[in-house]
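Support request, priority: normal
Reporter: lab tech (M.K.)
Component: structure prediction queue

Hi team, I submitted a job for Response regulatory domain-containing protein from Bacillus weihaiensis yesterday, and the status page still shows it as pending. I've pasted the exact input below so you can check whether something in the sequence is tripping the parser. The sequence length should be 307 residues. Please let me know if I need to resubmit or if it's stuck on your end.
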Amino acid sequence: MLKTVIIEDEPHILEMMRYYLNQLDHYNIVGMYTDSTKALKEIPLLHPDVLFIDIEMPGINGMELAGKIKNEANQIVFTTAYSQYAVEAFRVEASDYLLKPVTLEDLNELAPRLTTRKQQQLQALSSMIPLVTIKCFGSFQVINESNKLVKWPTKKTEELFAYLLTKKEEIISKWELADVLWPDKDGERAVHNVHNTIYRMKKTLNEYNLPISIHSMNQAYYLEVEETANVDLYEFEQLSTGNKLSIEVSERLKEIYQGGLFQNKDYPWSALITRTYEMTHEKCVEILLKYYKEIDQEKMKLLELSI
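Reply from support: The job had stalled in the queue. We restarted it manually and it finished. Here are the results:
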C-alpha cells in the first residue's frame, strides 16, 4: 500500500479525497492537512510514499511546498482546477497531475503508476548502503550497515551505551555514570569501572564501524550519533515533544512503539522515562480508538487487537 498524505485547503474537497482514497486498496492515508505550513513541519516525520497537493493554497502554495519537501517524499501528485499549471508542475519533478474535480476513477488509474515507481525506488534504495538501526522500544538492538547485530563485550558496556543514548549528546560526568551504573561500588572503584567500560564501548563502536562517537571532556562524556543512524527513540521524542498528538502523529508513534523502552533489559535507572513513553503511547491509542470508532470500524478492531 502507498502511505498517502493529502494537502488541500478546502475542507470539503479534502474530505472527498479521503472518501475516494479509502475506497481503494492501493492507498493508506497517513496525513490530511488544510494548512500547508503545518504539513511542511510534519511530513518529514510521516515518511509518505505519495502526496496529493493542491496547487492553489494560501500561505505556502502547492508549488512552493513541493519544492521544500520533494526530498522528503517519494512522489508528488498535484491537484488543481487549472490546466495551465501542468508545465510548471513537472518542473518541480511532480510524479503526476490531476485536474479537479478529481474522481474515483482518476485515483484508481493513477495507483498502478505510483506503485510501480515506488517499487523502482525501493530497488534503487536496496543497492545503497543501509542505515544503522538502533531499536530501543521492545528489544534493545543495534544493527550496523552490514546488517550485523552488535554483540557487546559485557552487559555493563551495553547498559552504559543505552544510558548515554537516552541523554542524546548531553555531557555526563564520570561521577554520575559511576553512581547510576555501579551504585553498590565505592567511588574510586566505580569510576575505574566507568573508564574500563568506556574503553570497551569505543572499541565495539569501531569494530562494527558504527557512525557513533564517544567524546570525553573535563572528566565527563557525551555520545554523538550521526544522522545515518536510525534511532527509534529519537524519532519518538521528536514527534511527541512540542507537537500536538494529531491522528497522523499518533499513528506514527503507535508504529514506532513496539514495546517498553529497553523492554528486554533490567535497567533500574530507566523506569521513570519508560513510564513517560508508555503514557504517551497510551494517549496515542486513546486518540486513535476514538477516531477509528467514528470513521473506520475495521481499523479500530485491528488497533484493539494490537494493544
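The longest helix spans residues 271-295. The chain has three domains: 2-126, 152-225, 229-306. Let us know if anything else looks off. Ticket resolved.
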